[in-house]
């Protein structure tokens, strides 16, 4: 534990054992977290850390003060208390608020250990560091010192640095988060075609000869063909990298765009690097928070890491976190992880039962006694009720039983007080033993899960089953059930998925029905919200829109020499949700500071005819909008809006997604 100040030192001393044993328990459960350094901080320091994104030092900017003020007001008015913050680093650093109760501190510590496991094992977090050691705290501190140096430089106007940072931050999420920072920077190099007329103007050729040799119509066709060929075949998702390669800034004294100065390129590189560092946290919010909530709940509640006198406080803590209104990543993530565990375990049990002589997918529900199966799945009594006075029952198991940690059991039986089995019963069990002890299908809330298996799933399991008479009895089949299959599968998924692939792969109709999810929409006809669907495909689509590109509009580079005039053309990859045009214009103003020349944004807007809206209202249906392609152009002084070329419109047009609601309104 890291200790500083008298109060913090006292709290740290009280938490030494909890920190040590939470890490031991996490590893017993199969987690492989980064080592974690815990720091005890006061209320004000916690708010500062939240403002800085979990780090103690960042570059100077007004955004941190704004975030600090917002967090302080949330605490002050009871809108959300900060229990902890942990960052993705090796070792990870976690900060505990000294005013938390011991029950809250234990909950935070178990939660943090699961986060550190996710950081260490999820491949999207690994993309940033690659094979090198991760030291994010040192990197961000160095970034802060570099930018501070530029702000203190007498040859650089501090306001210019602040304005430049503001411009870059408007685009901080416009990166290619599915590639590494190095790979995303590569792309087809933009060829800047030059109109042949300029070359002819520089040559000493008479007008008569020029007209005879170079036909104007041919020159027009050539310029158009070269401009078309120069367009990017594949839009560049990393807008920041493209601006870094080709951007300039407008020099008011010279009245033209000039090359960026070295400090500007350095600051842009720094902020782009930080965008890639924080991207995995945004891409895995549901998975990561759900993962931490799942293991925290198992450790604190089911494995009794919370003491008897602490459990009610912990239960209140957990209910407040999971009961937060709106789209709650803790709740959605935890429910999905539990569903994955249950379906994997159900598939494992059903697979064994379908191999019992006489059992087929057709008669499964008729011949299987689910009450008998439930009893057979219960953990062995010696595994289930580990206490100091029941250790003899555990010792009576066969000496090669993989569920028992025999070394720890011997130490516990030595009666020297070294192993406190009553406080930490998990110490004498292995991963296999804990998996049996916490097998999900025997938990009260899941006792009907096996009998609700669909015939279609049973048929799929049977389709490629050759040894379908491997067992004579149900008891023999259940004895072969791998109780760790659910946890094993969860760990596999934790390694490779992000929120989008996680939801796409595992959100099913059964999950939507069991957990009461639905979609709702704003109706143009009535001006009210209404439930739109309880179909899992609809719920999934809206959730995927929420998490694709961090839930923000996807903007890509289509052309860096639009219309052969050196203008930037960005395209909004339209998914049925219109841009906020006022915000889009604000971003274009900032982008102009980074490009130095006119900037364009292609998008699609929906237009409603007032008469159609009125007719739809009378008939209680939704009016059909007309989608129009628009190009918004900003030249540094004013905005102009043009009809968008049909070719570009088609490249950004929506397919089958058409929702009128904003992301924060999509799900309840």
From TrEMBL:
InterPro entries: Spore_V_R (IPR007390), SpoVR-like_C (IPR057008), SpoVR_N (IPR056174). Residues 553-604 form the SpoVR-like C-terminal domain. Residues 14-351, 480-551 form the SpoVR protein-like N-terminal domain. It holds the Pfam family SpoVR. PANTHER family: STAGE V SPORULATION PROTEIN R (PTHR30029:SF2). This is Uncharacterized conserved protein. It comes from Halogeometricum borinquense (strain ATCC 700274 / DSM 11551 / JCM 10706 / KCTC 4070 / PR3). The lineage of its organism: Archaea, Methanobacteriati, Methanobacteriota, Stenosarchaea group, Halobacteria.
């Amino acid at each position: 534990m890291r200790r500083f100040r008298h109060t913090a030192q006292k709290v740290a001393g009280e938490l030494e054992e909890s920190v040590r044993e939470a890490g031991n328990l996490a590893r017993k459960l199969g987690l492989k977290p980064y080592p974690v350094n815990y720091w005890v901080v006061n209320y004000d320091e916690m708010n500062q850390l939240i403002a800085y994104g979990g780090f103690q030092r960042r570059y100077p900017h007004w955004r941190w003060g704004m975030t600090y003020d917002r967090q302080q007001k949330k605490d002050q008015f009871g809108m959300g208390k900060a229990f902890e913050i942990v960052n993705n680093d090796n070792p990870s650093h976690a900060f505990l608020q000294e005013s938390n109760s011991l029950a809250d501190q234990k909950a935070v510590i178990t939660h943090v250990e699961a986060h550190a496991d996710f950081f260490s094992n999820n491949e999207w977090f690994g993309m940033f560091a690659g094979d090198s050691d991760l030291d994010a705290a040192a990197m961000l501190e160095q970034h802060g010192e570099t930018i501070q140096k530029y702000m203190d430089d007498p040859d650089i106007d501090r306001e210019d640095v602040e304005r430049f940072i503001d411009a870059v931050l408007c685009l901080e999420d416009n990166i290619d988060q599915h590639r590494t920072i190095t790979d995303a920077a590569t792309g087809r190099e933009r060829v800047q075609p030059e109109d042949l007329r300029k070359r002819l103007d520089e040559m000493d050729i008479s007008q008569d000869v020029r007209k005879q040799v170079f036909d104007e119509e041919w020159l027009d066709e050539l310029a158009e063909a070269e401009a078309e060929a120069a367009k990017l075949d594949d839009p560049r998702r990393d807008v920041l990298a493209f601006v870094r390669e080709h951007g300039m800034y407008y020099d008011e004294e010279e009245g033209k765009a000039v090359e960026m100065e070295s400090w500007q390129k350095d600051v842009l590189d720094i902020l782009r690097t930080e965008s890639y560092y924080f991207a995995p946290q945004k891409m895995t919010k549901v998975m990561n928070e759900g993962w931490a909530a799942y293991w925290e709940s198992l450790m604190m509640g089911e494995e009794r890491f919370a003491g008897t006198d602490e459990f009610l406080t912990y239960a209140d803590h957990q209910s407040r976190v999971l009961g937060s209104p709106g789209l709650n990543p803790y709740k959605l993530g935890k429910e999905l992880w539990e569903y994955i565990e249950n379906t994997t375990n159900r598939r494992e049990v059903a697979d064994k039962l379908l191999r019992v002589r006489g059992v087929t997918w057709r008669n499964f529900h008729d011949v299987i006694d689910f009450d008998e199966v439930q009893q057979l799945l219960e953990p062995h009594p010696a595994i289930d009720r580990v206490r100091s006075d029941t250790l003899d029952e555990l010792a009576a198991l066969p000496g090669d039983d993989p569920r028992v940690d025999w070394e720890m059991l011997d130490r516990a039986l030595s009666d020297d007080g070294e192993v406190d089995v009553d406080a930490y019963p998990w110490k004498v069990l292995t991963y296999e033993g804990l998996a049996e002890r916490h097998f999900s299908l025997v938990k009260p809330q899941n006792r009907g899960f096996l009998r609700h298996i669909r015939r279609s799933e049973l048929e799929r399991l049977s389709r490629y089953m050759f040894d379908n008479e491997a067992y004579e009895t149900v008891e023999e089949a259940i004895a072969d059930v791998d109780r760790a299959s659910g946890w094993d599968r969860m760990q596999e998924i934790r390694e490779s998925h992000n929120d989008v692939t996680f939801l796409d792969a595992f959100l099913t109709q059964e999950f939507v029905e069991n957990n009461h999810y639905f979609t709702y929409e704003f109706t143009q006809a009535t001006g009210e919200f209404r439930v739109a669907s309880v179909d899992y495909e609809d719920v999934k689509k809206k959730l995927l829109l929420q998490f694709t590109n961090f839930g923000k509009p996807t903007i890509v580079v289509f052309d860096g020499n639009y219309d052969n005039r050196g203008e930037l053309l960005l395209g909004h990859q339209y998914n049925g949700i219109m841009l906020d045009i006022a915000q889009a214009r604000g971003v274009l103003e900032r982008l102009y500071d980074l490009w130095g020349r006119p900037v364009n944004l292609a998008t699609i807007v929906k237009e409603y005819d007032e008469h159609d809206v009125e007719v739809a209202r009378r008939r209680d249906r939704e009016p059909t909008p007309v989608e129009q392609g628009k190009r918004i152009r900003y030249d540094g002084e004013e905005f102009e809006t043009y009809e968008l070329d049909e070719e570009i419109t088609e490249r950004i047009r929506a397919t089958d997604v058409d929702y009128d609601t904003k992301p924060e309104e999509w799900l309840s």
